[in-house]
# Entry
Amino acid sequence: MTVATTKMKILSLKELLVKECPYDWFNGGWVERFAMEHGYKASNGSRRARELENSGAWERKEEKGSVWYRRAEKEKKAVINGIEVKVFKEKIPEEKGLW
# Structure
């Protein structure tokens, strides 16, 4: 008897968070519960959320002692007078070494 096997990529917690997070603001508690539901410690989920925020993939705000996250707004590119420029909906991300 032959058993067919397929290689299936196992997603990391960070990849799962990016794939499954809501599009609107969500509480840090959601991240911790999500991590625990997938077999990780709640603190691991919080750490991954901070990494996603630091990398620019997520935005973060604090309200009344709670932290909230959402997917970062994507930048748009436009061509003005033959020059390609980046157009941002909200704040311009800080890039090291520009100022």
